[in-house]
Amino acid sequence: MDFNLGLLEPGERYRLLNNLVIPRPIAWITSLNKAGIVNAAPFSWFNLMGVDPPIITIGPQYRYNFKKGIKDTPQNIWTGRTFVINIVNEKLAEKMYRTSGFYPADVSEAEELNLPLAPSEIIGVPRIAEAPASIECREYDTIFIGNTCIIIGEALHLWINDQLIDPERLHINFEAIRIIGKGGGSKYVRTDDVFDLKQED
Ligand SMILES: Cc1cc2nc3c(=O)[nH]c(=O)nc-3n(C[C@H](O)[C@H](O)[C@H](O)COP(=O)(O)O)c2cc1C
User: Fold this and answer.
1) Domain extents for the chain?
2) Does 45 sit in the ligand 1 pocket, CB within 6 Å?
3) Residue 179 per-residue DSSP state
């Protein structure tokens, strides 16, 4: 079957492409609004784009449903220019999901859902204390293409649980960290069913 994507509605393109471009990493983003309220929400249109400098991108969509408009996370990033990407493991999956529900901008998901926070090292936005790792970021730029928005962030600082890293080799313990990813619809993936491909030098 062929699809001319230009002839489809955004919701149809979403159903097709969002179920094919998987699994996606999940950025559980904390950000601060003008009043200092901590917002938390997951974004799986997210990836690492380079390391020199270290650049990540996230794709917040407009709300198309009855709560139309711009989501709190991009608003806060544009206001404060800083945010934290918290990495999600299996233990945190439910809590992460619950922060994707609609909360008004002046309500903190972190407070409502009793998410313990910890101060970040170099930015004012706190990280999620139970996350296995958190990356402090500064907004580098935002690109708007029609109704698609891409926030480009520069990663400034990494915090990772000591148990999950060999500091000598900078080797992250893949089996122990148990990061989860996003499949289509309500599906999530574990990252512990892995295989090795022989690497040629
Ligand atoms: C695992 C997961 C991934 C998500 N990824 C995105 C995404 O990439 N872009 C987006 O706009 N919304 C995404 N959402 C929905 C947002 O989390 C949701 O709209 C949330 O209410 C936004 O919160 P905010 O207004 O506090 O920023 C995702 C939801 C879940 C559960």
Assistant:
1) 25-163
2) yes
3) B
Who contacts 180 (Cβ-Cβ below 8 Å, separation ≥6)? 26, 88, 89, 90, 93, 188, 189, 190, 191
Measured CA to CA, the distance from residue 135 to residue 160 in angstroms comes to 9
Query: What pTM value is reported for the model?
Result: 0.96
- Ligand 1 centre distance from Cα of residue 2 (Å): 29
CB 25 within 8 A of CB 33: no
Q: What is the pLDDT of residues 53-85, one digit of tens each?
A: 999 999 999 887 665 789 999 999 999 999 999
- Residue 149 near residue 143 (C-beta atoms within 8 A): yes
Does 44 contact ligand 1 (Cβ within 6 A)?
yes
* CA 22 – CA 184 distance, rounded (Å): 7
Flag whether pLDDT at 147 surpasses 80: yes
Which three-class secondary structure state does DSSP give residue 60?
coil
CATH code reported for the domain at 25-163: 2.30.110.10
Q: Which residue's alpha carbon is nearest to atom 24 within ligand 1?
A: 72
